[in-house]
């Protein structure tokens, strides 16, 4: 969810934004319950959502990062859990981010260009461990009311999300044929790019 779009700097190909990114994954209830205090176990079994302090310190998570962050990014990350109807637990990571994001801005039809403003989320883990995909049930959105550059730009309501993969590529710079290539060559990382548009 794009909470706020700030300054769109076409000259330096960056824009300012504040956004919320929610990611979810399933874990087995039997594996998860022992790490919770008794009160949280009871709340979880009653169908309530429970907050998970320091979850990422000792538990598996998808190791997400923002691919097109420009400079220092302010992030706040919180975890929660809720029991599903099939006896698993849905872990939710809510990431609040604020900062500048790099974007290739088009100036072919200045001043009437439509700019795509994107935030790309990736995982440090390869696609054999994590595959990121847009949630078909919870659509991405934008708060068009909190827009700083309203004199120069109009924000469109439509937001789209797409999945993509980036393949690792290593090159043998030294030219030494005896050097073995890294075992990660040819592996892929998963990304989801969420875009809004300004014209």
- The count of strands amounts to 9
Mean pLDDT: 87
Radius of gyration (CA) equals 20 Å
Give me the side-by-side strand order of the main sheet.
1-2-6-5-3
* CATH topology assignment: Acetylcholine Binding Protein, Chain: A
Low-confidence stretches: none
Which outline best applies? globular
**How many domains?**
1
Count of helical segments? 3
Give the termini distance in whole angstroms. 19 Å
Oligomer: single chain
Q: What is the architecture at the second tier of CATH?
A: Distorted Sandwich
Kindly provide the name of the CATH class. Mainly Beta
Helix/strand class: mainly beta
Tell me roughly what share of residues is in helical segments: under 10%
Proportion of beta-strand residues? over 45%
The largest sheet is: 5 strands, antiparallel
CATH 4th-level superfamily: Neurotransmitter-gated ion-channel ligand-binding domain
**Order of helical and strand elements:** EEHHEHEEEEEE
GO molecular function, one term: extracellular ligand-gated monoatomic ion channel activity
GO cellular component, one term: membrane
């Amino acid at each position: 969810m794009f909470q706020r779009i700030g300054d769109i700097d076409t000259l330096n190909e960056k824009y300012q934004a504040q956004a919320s990114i929610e990611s979810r994954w399933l874990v087995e209830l039997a594996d998860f319950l022992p790490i919770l205090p008794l009160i949280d176990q009871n709340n979880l079994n009653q169908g309530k959502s429970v907050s998970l302090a320091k979850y990422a310190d000792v538990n598996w998570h998808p190791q997400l990062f923002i691919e097109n962050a420009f400079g220092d990014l302010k992030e706040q990350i919180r975890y929660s859990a809720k029991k599903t109807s099939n006896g698993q637990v849905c872990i939710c990571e809510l990431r609040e981010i604020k900062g500048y994001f790099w974007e290739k801005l088009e100036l072919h039809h200045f001043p009437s260009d439509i700019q795509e403003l994107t935030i790309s989320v990736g995982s440090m883990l390869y696609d054999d461990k994590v595959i990121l995909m847009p949630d078909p049930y919870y659509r991405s959105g934008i708060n068009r009311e909190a827009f700083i550059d309203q004199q120069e730009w109009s924000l469109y309501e439509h937001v789209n999300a797409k999945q993509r993969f980036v393949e690792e590529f290593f090159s043998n710079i030294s030219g030494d044929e005896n050097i073995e290539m890294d075992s990660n060559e040819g592996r892929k990382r998963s990304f989801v790019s969420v875009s809004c548009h300004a014209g």
